[in-house]
DNA sequence: CTGAAAGCGCTAACAC
DNA sequence: GTGTTAGCGCTTTCAG
């Protein structure tokens, strides 16, 4: 492996000059020597050792991304969006899966300091904010728009999204609209959830009553979707529309509902959230609130680079979500 | 940021002693001083700078993973499997998406050298093998079991898997079994594809004839699956079973077949390949050959670490695939 | 415009 | 068992 010194010898200059040329920092290097150096480096197939460079400059051009799980399509898309942008900017992306576990997140944060990454992109709950700050590293939070806005954060605008979905249902004649909140009842009702806020604000502004029986707290997975279908199939006065926890949940709901002879969308319109690939593959194709997954990753990536550069960034950047109307919903 | 020297001062020892203790390399350090050093480091919240360490030791404890696309569930699972293992071993995982594009792969290979990763995990076609070797870095290939076996490689055993699926269909009375190959006809028939080899070997050993009309070459996606359903719906003598290009393809096939009043599995049994989450969510639930995605990543990770250590590794490690029987297939 | 020299924080001979 | 010293390969003053 040839070093800067080898290049210097071949080009018959000092290694500082080589460094000046090769780091792009060639203020005050004559065009002539510049070419001489570049040619020498090219000829001998020199590749710069970023490790040594980083040790000096204290920047690694590497970002740590901490997400719950890449094998969840949502996070995979976010990762992809981020990596695409980083790649363009000459950055590398270290991937870390936390499963939402605080201990794992702490472990990765520690690693970040040792490995000297330039910044951290993380999806986390509010309990770890202090520790994140204590790393002393630049960071950007991803997701959880409802949380504190003291820090740079990019997430999707669920408040507006849910409102959009409710408007669509309302305009199509629905008045008995059930809402599923992917959180526990306490935090949901304590005004911490954008989704619930959006729901209750909408009801209020449309002179509708908040009914406990149309409000559900469930885990955003297939199983809970199926369970809700069971529950609803037994209701005397079931809703005519439902906004699911997410697409997976909606898929489970539809499967079980159909098994119980509830027709979708004739009996109940269902709207998912996320727009995962599955959404357009099930039958009926799912109407859903599309979250800008890839964009979320890209904007988060842009933001962390801005933070690193010391630029001013938006503290709580909410990306618009989009209602995709497919086959699982209809007017009444 | 405190350094090893600060710790040395506090503990009143030399920095080499500190290094000896903190790098775990404490041969010939008295228990007493060891404790003294550890306490000092702990107190001042010292965190080791791996950059400096790496520059000296020439190892970064970082592996580069080059896959086509994380937002494809198959690769996401592989990435997750690898990262889980690396994490346990104290390694970091740099993620790179190539979209199968040679130029992108080359770019990442170049990066690997500069960033001094300890090794490379890559899914690639055979055209880039020389360039990969030329990096001088340890590497392990992922996937494409049918390709050259001159290098360490881990992939799933499609030959055996397809055989298993065929046996299942045969034992259940099927004699008109169609095969879809996710490659073009030339390479498929030129004995390069494990899948096709497995198919023709099976036919031969069961005294069945290879019929052109039951052999299809398609892209492994939803659209091509739908198209094949159209084609098959028009056949005079359609197959009673079909092994799809993959699960996505199978989903497309089923959707379109049902639309054309072909009953699955009553009229045609269909078997997918991959076992993506979708497989168990569509109706009917898909019988499929499950590839050991997570395991693939894990074993690849294990293997690269072995290669780095200079240990002997299996050159062409084929992981067993598993037939999951669900609802899309039945006996005749 | 270019070179000499110091040093980033760590490890690894080599002494004692 | 512990300290001294010389770098790893680069960037960056500081001279000239």
Topology, pairings included?
2 copies of one chain form a homodimer.
Chain A: H1 4-11, H2 15-22, H3 31-43, H4 50-57, E1 62-67, H5 73-88, E2 92-97, H6 102-114, E3 119-122, H7 129-134, E4 139-142, E5 153-156, H8 158-171, E6 177-181, H9 185-192, H10 194-205, E7 215-217, H11 222-233, E8 241-243, H12 247-259, E9 269-274, E10 287-290, H13 293-309, E11 316-319, E12 322-324
Parallel strand pairs in A: 1-2, 1-3, 3-4, 4-5, 5-11, 6-7, 6-8, 8-9, 9-10
Antiparallel strand pairs in A: 10-12
Helix pairs in contact in A: 1-2, 1-3, 2-3, 5-13, 8-10, 9-10, 11-12
Chain B binds a DNA duplex (16 and 16 nucleotides) through residues 3-5, 13-17, 19-20, 22-23, 25, 27-30, 33, 48-58.
Descriptive report:
2 copies of one chain form a homodimer. The first copy, chain A, has 332 residues and is of the alpha/beta class. Chain A has 3 domains: 4-48, no CATH class; 60-156 and 293-317, Response regulator (Rossmann fold), CATH 3.40.50; 158-291, Rossmann fold, CATH 3.40.50.2300. Chain A has 13 helices and 12 strands. Chain A has helices at residues 4-11, 15-22, 31-43, 50-57, 73-88, 102-114, 129-134, 158-171, 185-192, 194-205, 222-233, 247-259, 293-309; strands at 62-67, 92-97, 119-122, 139-142, 153-156, 177-181, 215-217, 241-243, 269-274, 287-290, 316-319, 322-324. In chain A, the strands form 2 sheets. Chain A has a 6-stranded parallel beta sheet with strand order 2-1-3-4-5-11, with helices on both faces. In chain A, helix 7 links the parallel strand 3 (119-122) and strand 4 (139-142). In chain A, helix 9 crosses helix 10 (194-205). Chain A is elongated and about 90 Å long. The model of chain A has no long low-confidence stretch (mean pLDDT 92). The interface between A and B is large, with 44 and 44 residues.
């Amino acid at each position: 492996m040839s070093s800067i010194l080898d290049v210097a010898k071949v080009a018959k200059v000092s290694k500082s000059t080589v460094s000046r040329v090769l780091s792009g920092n060639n203020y005050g290097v004559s065009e002539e020597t510049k070419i001489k150096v570049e040619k020498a480096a090219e000829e001998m197939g020199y590749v710069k050792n970023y490790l040594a460079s980083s040790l000096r400059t204290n920047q690694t051009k590497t970002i740590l991304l901490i997400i719950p799980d890449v094998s969840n399509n949502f996070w995979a898309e976010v990762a992809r969006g981020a990596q695409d942008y980083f790649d363009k900017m000459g950055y590398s992306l270290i991937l870390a899966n936390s499963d939402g576990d605080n201990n794992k997140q702490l472990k990765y944060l520690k690693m970040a300091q040792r490995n000297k990454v330039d910044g951290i992109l993380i999806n986390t709950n509010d309990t770890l904010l202090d520790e994140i700050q204590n790393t002393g590293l630049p960071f950007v939070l991803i997701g959880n728009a409802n949380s504190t806005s003291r820090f740079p954060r990019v997430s999707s605008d669920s408040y507006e999204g849910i409102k959009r979905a409710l408007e669509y249902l309302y305009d199509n004649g629905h008045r008995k609209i059930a809402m599923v909140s992917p959180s526990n009842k306490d935090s949901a009702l304590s005004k911490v959830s954008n989704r619930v806020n959006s729901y209750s604000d909408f009801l209020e502004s449309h002179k509708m009553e908040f009914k406990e029986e149309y409000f559900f707290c469930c885990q955003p997975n297939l199983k809970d979707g199926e369970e809700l279908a069971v529950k609803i199939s037994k209701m005397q006065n079931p809703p005519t529309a439902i906004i699911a926890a997410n697409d997976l949940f909606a898929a489970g709901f539809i499967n079980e509902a159909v098994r119980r002879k509830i027709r979708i969308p004739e009996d109940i319109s269902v709207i998912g959230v996320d727009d995962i690939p599955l959404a357009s593959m099930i039958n009926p194709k799912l109407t859903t609130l599309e979250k800008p997954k890839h964009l979320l990753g890209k904007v988060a990536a842009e933001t962390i680079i801005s933070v690193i550069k010391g630029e001013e960034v938006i503290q709580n950047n909410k990306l618009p979500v989009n209602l995709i109307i497919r086959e699982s919903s209809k007017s009444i």
